[in-house]
Amino acid sequence: MSFEFRALPAAFLAPRSASFADFLASTAPASLPQRTSAGDQPLHAAHGTTIVALRGDFGAVMAGDRRATMGNVIAQRDIEKVFAADDHSMIGIAGTAGIAVELVRLFQVELEHYEKIEGVPLSLDGKANRLASLLRGNLGLAMQGLSVVPLFAGYDIDRGRGRIYSYDVTGGRYEEHDFYAVGSGAFFARGSLKKLYRADASVDLAVTTALEALYDAADDDSATAGPDMARRIFPIVGVATTDGVRLLDESEVESRVAPLIAARMTRPNGPFAGMPEGGSSS
């Protein structure tokens, strides 16, 4: 019996990183999940953009803009991105909008089912862990570009204060301190929150801070929408306190947005850091 020796192709012997994905990208890019074969059309799906959250002794506030994009096109102007997960927690979505909304619905049902079966609600840590498991189940689609990046926040009854959790597409769960933002405008929103956040803020000031951060994100990120006064489309804002979760109605958000926009007419870059509660940006 004879054996024929065949040398490995040069690509296998070239020095490179230990990443198999990097190796495929250089030698067989069509094998990667996010690639499409010749002649295939890329999948176009609407994407949600920016969500912000901040916490305090009162609980937590979460706000999201209303724009969904599809490439450089506005796919929807009034999408809802902030939802009540249960009585004391909220979830905001960024990423592939259709999958994100379905994940929220499944998450809501699972929390309700647990409470009906066990007779008590799941702890806030337990809710955060369950959301991480749901995201991990979406990893296959995330590798194909259909990722979901939620932000979870709520009032922890056991600890008596608000808490915030962020995630990555693999289901990694990270508790955030004080504030956080996700989505395409998150970089700008977090910069605004660093400037304006106050640990001793009341609910009203926390809501105003969230709206200011979204406005700053929209100022620099084309995929994030600012308040649309002509169409009366305003951010969705949720508040979680010891009394439960409440989504502010449209008229209430409008009443908070109007003075914000008026103040920006004299100071387009927004209020000064350390401004007293209820202060003006002038």
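Next protein, fold it too.
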Amino acid sequence: MNNSPEPTDQSRRQFLGTAAGIATASVAPGVVLHIAQATSNSYPVTEAKRWGMLIDTNKCLEDCNACVQACNKEHGMDLIHKPEGQDQQKFDQQKPTWIRKVKLKDNLTGRVTNLPMLCQHCEKPPCVDVCPTGASFKRADGIVMVDRHICIGCRFCMMACPYHARSFIHENVEVKPTLTPRGKGCVESCNLCVTRLDEGGTTTACQDACAQAGHHAIIFGDLNDENSPVSKALQELPSRQIRADLNLNTGVRYSGV
């Protein structure tokens, strides 16, 4: 009996190697196997970058909602429809909103400022501190997010957020976007279009929409890079944090407020 290993079939090995690199392979008549492939963006997030933005309210127009509409489309909020029989006002109050336009009035001068309000991506986020499960967390690059797999819907984070920047999903969701899946009973908020960044992108949907509208009020980028557009803009324009008294060191700053 010959117990020696059989010689390697180089042609078979080459075929398997080729098959592993393609998107699909036929394994039986009528059956197609979809093969997952490792992508080039499989790298750890580090503190080398801190993503953030400067919003120049002098360029933000009252009647413009381009940033809101772009955010809704990017993350599938435009696919959420009012349940049959629900009151319209109640639906408007409960539907998820990642960016909303707000007005600030200076009590001394009477000047009214319009600004987009979103998650401020704090260095010391209160939402993370109060979350009992760790669903609310901050990435090493400064992006504050919610892990929907372990969110129990307690809404402590919503109560802790001084910017009212989080939304709770009250109803069942029929259409669930691949990039931003959502389900009833979870909390969500702006994630600075993290899927774009993890794929090598450098802009957010709201920034792109604002630029396309001709306003260029939103400047996004790496706050740790002194040569990035957002860092240069922060050096040139006076800016402030909303609720700076809380010492949260927000990643979103405003000029003209």
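About the second fold: Helices lie at 10-20, 66-74, 88-94, 126-130, 156-160, 194-198, 205-212, 229-236.
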